Amino acid sequence: MSIPLDSSGPSVNDFGCQTECTWCDGCGDYGIMAAAKRALVELGLAPHEVLLCFDIGCHGNMSDKMLGYRVHGLHGRVLPFATGAKLANPNMPVMAFGGDGASFSEGVNHLVHSVRSHYPITFILHNNANFGLTTGQASSLTWQNQPMNTSPNGIPEDTIRPMEFVFSLQPTFVARTWSGDIPQMTRVFKAALQHRGFAFVDVLQACPTYNKFTSHEWLLEHCYDANAEGHSPKDLEAGKKLACDTSAKVACGILYQTEDIPHFYERLIPRQNIKTTPVEEVAITDVSDLLKEFV
Amino acid sequence: MHRVSLKVTGAQGQGINSVGEMVAKGLKRSGHHVFGYREYNSVIKGGHSSYQLDIADSHIESSETTVNILVCLNYEGLKRDLSTLKEGGILLHLIPSWKFSKDDEQLFEDRKITVLYFPMEKILKKYNARPIVGNVLVTSVVWGLLGRDHHNLKEMVKEQFAHKGEKILDMNYSFIDEGRQFKDEEAAENELELPAVDSKRKDDLLVTGSEAMGMGMIHAGCRLYAGYPMTPASPLLKYIAEKQNETHMVVKQAEDEITAIQMVSGAMHMGTRAATATSGGGYDLMSETLSLNGIIENPSVMVLAMRQGPSTGLPTWSGQGDMLLTIFGSHGEYPRMVMAVSNAEDCFTLMPDAFNYAEKYQLPVTILTDKHIAEGLYMQQQYDLKKATIERGIVTDQKELDALTSADRYNPHAVGGVSPRWLPGAKAATYCAQGDEHDAEGNVDETGENATQQMDKRMKKMETLKAELPEPVLYGDQNPETLIVSWGSNKSAILDVMKDQKGVGYLHYTYLWPLHTKKFEELSLKAKRTILVESTYQGQLDMLFKQECGKGCNEQILKYDGRPFFCDELLSKLSL
Predict the structure, then answer these.
(1) Do A290 and B215 touch (CB under 8 A)?
(2) Shortest Cα–Cα distance, A150 to chain B (Å)
(3) Considering the domain B3-201, what is its CATH architecture?
(4) Is the pTM higher than 0.80?
(5) Own/partner pairs for A229-238, CB < 8 Å, 24+ apart?
(6) Which end of chain A has fewer CB atoms surrounding its CB within 10 Å, N or C?
């Protein structure tokens, strides 16, 4: 990890605020927030130069624990809100944060369409495999045979495999990291922010209060940096295989990335060669040409 | 007022709209006043649909229940619509050897109706042409029955088909000659006397409410549109999408209504102007997001194009039953504005206002329209393109931005409840657009004191907004004995009916929430009769009046069959 020595740029402190954190001791959100701030700072972004959009859940309480232009919206809906914002001003980096409940239960449709539409935003999945803020109900990513609040016998459904799911949608950026490794998260978040299209980052997140099956210790034991061990993110099939096979070890890092696919905004024919943004274009507009066909 | 009408009926997919639209355009260009009204079922092919054109010597925006000329492209119309023919009317149909019942024959005799069978199939066969191109044949016969010069029709056909090549154009010219020949040989005496011409209106637009609204939004500086198809909001999406290469707008057909309104909200939050439209069911899905926009004080503009009934109801028909939904729907209490357009004039001119109110007061604005407006074909005087202003209420000056603190964003002491809004990306203190109850900076604050203060701040905007909104407009007699009260598309039929009446006033509501009642109270006190005209079961505006001022109308004319108020029907119900 490189800490910039040039003191003229933004610093992590610039993103700090006085609001008291309300997460449990040992919550993975502390690490994710630290990495998010570092990634932004290392990319030279000041708080006013980024839009951070949060879903509802424990992670959403980050919305007033750091600075930056922030939105704390509705449960399951962070992706379309963030997308609308990005399309209005494509020059602005937009990060969306959502939990596994919001992204694989309530708003799973938005995830599907965000991947297939190649919206140029970064999505950080806070994956603690349960509904934490509502006191530990099973999500669709909760393992089977885990007694949870409202499912004392474990879930009768099958568990969604998020990597198989996302890879089936022809993604252009898939990464996995975990909440105990701030340097790795920082590296991955930076790459995601710099990615051309939709960047999907699955952050395996410790939830010491409700997730007893993938604890911080379990993650520490199982996660490894696949890029450091030579995995090249260029190969889709290799990335997918590595991502989906978590039987022995959990591969982390950038698992797959291609910059060759145009993103949504680039595909919009009416926006070709237009230098201004929709935000800049708001004005009373002459429609006399449009009126002609009706005479 | 002298008015006549003609109706073309047939199955969907038979091209009845193109007959109606072509005749409308031709008549308008000759200086006639026209209004076009469509009925159709929720199917692609088949069903029973119609296109009615009413023609008058002065401006009209309504239809009659009866017609002078009925054109039936298939037998459904012969079974269902004969009784709508007026005395001395003309029936033109395409069904070979159709046997009319005894009752039908009696009706023809009683009303002196001329029945014409037009052998379209035979003519099409002669030209080896597909049935769909027969529209021009039918149009040509109708053109003759209206006593029009076929030369004009050829000019219009040229406009429409010239790009398809000479062969197709020539075929259509031949069709026009065939139609004229039929008219001259079989119906030489049958010509409808048209109302007098008004040469001043030749250059009017002929436009549907949806097209007018699309242009109005573009005029207002709307740069992003997201929508999910739902009748009768789809024509607006279609129009805006079709024009995207000219307007360079970002147009997104979203995966559902929630996505559409979320994208619009994100785009408005970032600082562009964005809009979406849907019908009742889609609005239900969007309502949670409206509540979010209420608390984060995010401007948004959405259109609810109403149809009749709960659930899927009558999906291709009109109604006004969703008005109270827009005022009371969605959870929590938050400031909002509801306005209703009534015709193609409103659809254009009120769009900049809708965006201005949304942005100035930082709240969701719902624009109510209905199927009747969305698909009605209006003659519209050229819009004044110099009138609209833009008011955004955004802090953009760098000096002012430098002076802002995060706590200015939701400052509970802001004058009129309207606190400064600045856009993400501005070099200034940042804030959180916080969907939880929050303090002035947008930090979560669950204390009772703060919750009260912030609610007071937000709701205060309703008073500020109400003070700026105009009172409803009184048409007709300014001291009326009979006061009609209504909103939305009913205005058209009401004004058409009132043209020949004395002592009648019409109080028209454009702004439904917040609601002004002063003028209503004053006028209803003096009037002998105060009549609510509304396309609902419950008389919703009356419910609002009673809630807001304790007084209501003493009569109600309500309708909830999916059909608009027809002018003759309304006149008889009003029993003036």
Answers:
(1) yes
(2) 25
(3) 3-Layer(aba) Sandwich (3.40)
(4) yes
(5) A231/A255, A233/A257, A234/A258, A236/A167
(6) N
